[in-house]
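Escalation from tier 1.

The customer reports that the assembly of three entities below gives different structure tokens on two consecutive runs. Tier 1 could not reproduce it. I'm attaching the input and our single run for tier 2 to review.
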Amino acid sequence: MALTTNDVRGIADYARIALTDEELQEMTSYLNDAIELLEPIRAYDLTGVEPTYHPIGDLSNVMSDDQTDANGRSLTLDVALRNAKSTQGRAFRVPSILGNEDQKWPKGA
Amino acid sequence: MRRLQEVLRDWEAVIGLEVHTELTTLQTKMFCDCRICHDDPPNTNVCPVCLGLPGALPVPNRRAIEYIVMAGLATNCHIQRHSSFYRKHYFYPDMSKNYQTTQGPVAFCMHGHLDLEVRGQGAQERPDATADKNEDGSYVAPIRILRIHMEEDAAKMVHVGGSEGRITSASESLIDYNRCGTPLIELVTEPDLRTPEEARLFMEKLRRTFMALGISDCSLESGSMRCDGNVSIRRRGTTGFGVKTEMKNLNSFKSLHDALAYEICRQAEVLEAGGAVRQETRHWEPSRRRTMVMRVKETADDYRMYPDPDLAPFDLSDEFVQQCRDRVPELPDARRDRYMAELGLSRKAAEQIAGDPATARFFEQAVRLAPRAASMVANVVVNMLPAMQAVTPEQTASIAELLAAEAITFAQAREVLGLADGTNEDPRRIVDERGLRQSTDADALAKTVDEVLERCPDQVRQYRDGNKKVVGFLVGQCMKASRGTGNPKLFNQLLLKRLST
Amino acid sequence: MEGVDQLSAASIVAGIVAGDFSATEVARASLAAIDAREPHVRAFLQVSADLALEAAAATDARRAAGEPLGPLAGVPVAFKDNLHLVGTRTTCASRMLQDYESPYTATCVQRLLDAGATPMGKTNMDEFAFGSSTENSAFCRTRNPWDVSRVPGGSSGGSAAAVAAGEVTLTLGSDTGGSIRQPASFCGVVGMKPTYGAVSRYGVVAFGSSLDQVGPFGRSVADVALAMNALVAPGKDKLDSTSQAVAPGFLDGLDVPLARMRVGVIPALMEHESLSAEVREGLTAASAALEGQGAQLVEVDLPHMAAAIAAYYVIGPCEAFSNLARFDGVRFGYQEPGCATLAEQTSWSRARGFGAEAKRRQLLGAYLLASGVYDAYYYPAQQVRTLIVSDYATAFRRCDALLLPTAPTTAWHLGEVSDPTQMYASDLFTISSNIAGNCGVSVPVGLGADTGMPLSAQLQGPAFDDAKLLRIARALERGVEAAGRYAPGTVARLHGVTKEEVWPA
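Tier 1 run:
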């Protein structure tokens, strides 16, 4: 079942990538081609095969000590803010969050 | 709107809670070694990892994993040996990577429960539990816990340019990443709660438990412990689920109770008027005592969750879990029951002391020094110490022993403690020095009794008219007249003797 | 100082230790080579002359003070521009990060610097490593030093070209699906993708976190081995949860042929329909060279290889979507000016900051991870990964390494391959080792009779058998040299450019 431009617009909205109409057409045809390339994945009988999410063998339980700045990575304010285009005082700045209706209320914890 | 108790006679509420607890007693964040301190100036405690800079990689904090396992053990959860972190995607700059590192279908802790003892006024909110209720109307509500998983907290955002700092009218927002990446455990209950009182008690019990574990400062006010409530209602006798709404901003036990109570009544009103409850998130406004719509959920959110490839999976060993188990202290309810059974404390005092780990530690130290005066120690701890600054367990034990021996009165005890407060003075020495021993000189006390009776003819008449309770007032007057030095039992005896003649 | 471009890393270190020349002289020679050849090659996005001269001076000062010198003392190195180095920008060849100043240094970069290497700059790449030709760079198209009308391969094309052109001695690249090995093959240099976890990913701008691995380019197996020693010392990086300790013994016995060396070949791949005639010829020569060095060739199979490319184009985009989500223009990166709302700013910053291929991969990933779709592609892709890991385990029971093509053809002309899905097919022979996480290396085996461009063979080894893989690679290199096909240390001749242009008077 091929993706429509509407589907692709929904995906792009979710991924926060604005697309022009022309890009939308191009992207739709690309995605359909790419998905076709993925079909072999469905050709195998994978019943009972466990997934391997991490190609790291038996490595597990990797943890660090609860020790402040043990790795000396703490950034000075200057370095932390240096690459930001909009800041105010010590903070990063973003424009209005709820500019229009379809904006979602902030989620998270 | 109808009152909650009326509504709950016709409708049954189905409530589930999601409780987020920041592990504030840790030194460092969940996946980096930045200090946990939200009060520092904005963006002080940040590094490439918690700022979500390109190329930065997470490493989990071992102590945080220990803490969540302890939380799971304390809430009767099954500790899942094998679990992984997942990425949960949503574009919002309070989560620096635009995904939150959290756990997938399998959390560290699964399928636990806490049993709530619901007593007193609150027990009346639940009419259906009548059959299981004890004589005093109390009942036990077993609340299942679906899971407790590990995740990271978001940054703090300040919305400026609008009124009241509210997001709806803000022209811009400022972001401080100090909090971003703070270890957070999220507990999700099954929808087993039936009344706002049960929800409140659950939250209180959970807070006591986490405080006892020492994993968080558990402050609802500052937000280190946060609770969202899901509530729907259904006609009594039916078993299906209604449409639920999600309640936010429940930042006190009272808010939790009142918001749920409001919402249950609101939903009942909507349904009784033939309307339909919409699936939405609502914000509790304590000052106006109502909930307001924040956001309507038309479709389920799709967070594109998948196992985080940057983090190795967990395969917790028996040894690791045992180490955590060894670190779980006696929990408040067990401790309360022990105080009642072994030390003969009243339920109220036992609960109050056992509910706060620092108080319980202090109490037990003092009891070790005055083992025969345990309930008097409890009395001092509960009734006198809150007004003091720095009384030691040794001083408390001394005072309790003096009280138990009826060597001093409560008023004298208070005075002595006030003098001993902040010093290393032994209260016995203060008592001796100041001659504060309780007076049992019957002649002297009889004189005081006579004076009081003379001053209070009205009460004497009332007593003779059959109001026997008034003797308490007269004992109080005698204590006052003796400036707290007289033995109240002797006063009582003397008064009764005089009044009956 | 002339001829530094011809020297091996070991000779540079030895020369500096012996006092034949100074690290500063080597750095200046490298800068001169960069000056002369960059106009034609364009391998670099930034040349860090100041950092280089500073580091070289420090090396010379250490020597003057009688302090021990590191194993890469004074060796000119360069880094793919997705590796952080304080004092440089890390652009990932993207408009998104055009002026992004590295706030910290990647572990792999730091380890080369700790070994005494001289940092010459940052090299071009396909934007965020999405591509196989380095044509997806937002800033310039790097040319193949063997023929400047051709591509250097990708995505680490700049790193391969800089070494091939003799501008620097060693470079680092990253390999998510072949991005080190394929450009190494196109440019006639040795390029290694170590076992996943052998080299820290901390400070490497992520593309596919379970696939990415940093590795070195050099003009000989010995140079690559020297770089590997520096990359794995001193052990596991505690900043990368997926990194593991590897002993820095890559030079030990490198020149000693492996006893009872067995090299596996997969007939279906050696004669794959996509292979050009000259690539086939190169593989035949590689087999012969290995046999000449005492290897026994055994037939093996990787039955699920065809599924690997599909699994790769599921896992890669999914991880890329999530890794690139953080580029929202708030804390760093391109920010679209004048947006009224946050959502608008995010969407337009990403639309204008990312190039076409970066957007394609992210949208593909966002689609594949959607609920309902996840079970149809992502989950089976990770199951396929299990099958591929097990295919390799079976194959490696019968052999020490596999001999494979690196890429189906030699380097193509700029602009010749434009269809993205067609471009993906060039990764066919490299992808499965990223899926399984084991190691691979591309070794030059001669020049093609038809194009005159470098031919290579790929060797793949079991996970954490990287040192043994390099010993076998060294045997191949020796055999190829013995056959008079290609000498280790060869510098590209910049076909298409007159000698006067390369070395102006």
